[in-house]
Amino acid sequence: MLMAALASTLSSAAVAQSALSGVPNAMQGFAQNRGQPVRIEATALDMRDKNQQATFTGGVRVVQGDTRMTSDSLVADYDKDAAVTSPNGPVRPLPAAPGRGPASSIHRLEAKGHVMVTQKDQVASGDQAVFDARTNQIKMLGQVVLTQCQNVLRGDRLLVDMRTGVSRLEVDHGKVEALLAPPGQGCGAPAPAGGKTRKPGGLK
Question: pTM score, two decimals?
Answer without folding.
Answer: 0.68
